[in-house]
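Re: How this chain folds, sequence and tokenised backbone to follow
Notation: Tokens come from a learned vocabulary of local backbone shapes, not from coordinates.
Start of record: The labelled sequence and token lines come straight after this line.
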Amino acid sequence: MSIPTDANRELLTVIANARAKPGKEQALREALEALVEPTSKEDGYVTYALHQGADDPAVFYFYENWESAAHLEAHLATAHIATFLAAMDDLLDGPLVIQQLRRIA
């Protein structure tokens, strides 16, 4: 099995994680799922995979690959991300954590 950075080590990898407030797990899941389809149409999109914690269903992660940091910045400025960010305080227990990574091995 391969991943996008096997073919292109220059891709920007992003891991974003969020924890739902108690009782908001389904609402957060739906809000995050709503980001997938419009994101898949963006310039520079390579991977945008949503995961939910197997041991802790209140935790959600995106594994993302972007062609460049500029493409990620454009993604973060889209209307669908703005809509999510406006609802975030009601859904999240703690901060949304976004880490940018470069594959080294």
